[in-house]
Design brief:
It is built from 15 helices and ten strands. With 511 residues, the chain is mainly alpha-helical. This is Cytochrome D ubiquinol oxidase subunit 1.
Length: 511
Amino acid sequence: MDLLALSRFQFAFTAFVHFIFVPLTLGLSVFIAITKTLYLKTKNPLYDELSMFLMKLFAINFAAGVATGLTMEFQFGTNWFQYSKFVGDIFGSPLAIEGLMAFFLESTFMGIFLYGRGRISEAMHTFSAWMVALGSNLSGLWILIANSWMQTPTGYKIVETQQGIRAELTDFWAAVLNHTTIIRFLHTVDAGQITAGFFVLGVMAYFLLKRKHVEMAKLGLKVAIIYTSIVSVLAIIFGDIHGYYVAKYQPLKLAMAEGIWNTEKGAPVIPIGWVDQKEQKTYAPIAIPGMASFLSYHDFNAEVKGINDLIKEYQQKAKDYESKVAELEKQYAVNPTPELKQQIAEYKAYAKAYNISHSDLPSVNIVFQSFHFMVGLGFLFVFISLWGLYLLKKGTIYQNTAFLKTVLYSIQLPFIASELGWFTAEVGRQPWLVQGMLKTADGVTYFNTSANVLFSVITFILIYTGIFVIYVKTMKKKVQEYAEKDVVVDYETVPNTVQVGMYSKDTKGGV
C-alpha cells in the first residue's frame, strides 16, 4: 500500500471505531434526560433508578468515545498536512468550538449527575441530565458543521499565499449553516436516538427474560418502545429529505449509491444488486422503475445523472477552468490586481479538483451496498418498533418472549446502520476531500513515509481493538452486575408495583 492508501486506511479505521460510540452518546443522553424528567413529574423512584443506571452505561460509552476520538484530530497534521493547510482556516473553528463548548459542558454535567444525587435538588439533578444531552448533541452539531462544509462548501474564498493555494473563511454563518448542515444533523442525531432506543429495549428485555428488576424493566421498555417508534419513523422522513439534498448538491454520490452508470429518465431503484466497477455495470435481479427518480427529485420521470456522464461533465468543467486561468493570467500580466490574483487561484483549484477519471473513484460497490443495507435496516427498525407498540397496546409485550429476544439481539443493528450511513457519506464523497475543491490524493502529507504511517496503522489497530474489547466486556459486566444487584427503592412510593427485582411490595422500608 502506498502513502495515500495507508493514510486513508488509518483515518478510515480510527473513524470507524470512534463512530461506534458516537450514536449511543447522542441518543442515550436524551433518553436519560427524558426518564429523569418523568421522575421529577411522577415521583416514581423507578424512573430515577433507571436514569442513574443508564448514565453509568453512558459514562463508559463516553470514555471510549473520547479515547478513540482524540487521535483523529492529530492525523490532520501528521497524515493530511496538505488538507490542513488548505482548509485549516475554516475547518479548525468548528472543531475548536466543539471542544471548548460542547465537550466540557457534557463532561461537567455528567459528573454532576453521577455524583450529585442526594447532594443537589431533584430539579438541578434533572437540569444536569438535560445539559449532558445538550452537550452531547452540540458536540455532534459542530462536528457535522465541519463535515457538511466538506460535503457542500460555502462562505469561503480561495486565495494564493506564500504557502500555496488555500481556502479562507469569508462568512462564518454561511459556512456553518450551509446547504446540508441542518438535515445532515437531524438525520445523524435521529440515528443516535434509534441506537439508544434499541439499546434500552435490549437491556430491559434482558432484565425481563432473567426476571430481574421486573417493574423497572417494564417501565423502561414502555418508554423506550414509544420513543423508538417515533424516532424510527422520523428517520425515514429525514432520510428522504437528505436524499433530495444529495441529489441536488452531490449527484456523483447519488449515482454511486444507486449504482447508476449512465444518465436516464425514470431511473429505477435496485433493492438488491451488485456493482461491477470494471465493467461499469450494476447487476439488478430486482429493479423498481422510476423510483430512484421519484425518491431523488419527487418526480417519477426526472433525469438522474449517471457516473460516466458526470465524470465527463467534471472533466469539461476542468478544461473550462483551465481556459479561464490562461485568459486571466494574460490580464494579470497587464494589470496585476489582487482581485485577478484571487480569481486565478480559485480557478486553478477548481481546474485541478474537477480533473477526475474513473481511476479516482472509490469502490462504488461499497457505497451502493452500504446505502442499501442502511435503508433496509431503517425500515426494519420501523417494523420492530411498530410491532412493539402493537404488543404494548394489547398488554402482552412484557410476556412476549419472541419480541423480547428480538430486541435483545437487535442491539447491535442500529450501530451497524450508523456505520453504513457513515460509509455512504464519506466514501461517497470521494474522490474529493472537499467537494469540488480538493481531491483526496492532493490532501495527503507528501513528505511523510509509508513506513511511518504503516507503523502508526498497526499501533492504532492494536490499541483500538483493545479499547473496543474492554468496552464490550465492561458494558456487559455492568449490566450483569446490575441484574444481580438489590435496588434500593421505597415501595410505598411506587404506584401499581407488584415486584421490584426479586422483591415484592410486601417488603417494607426498601431493600
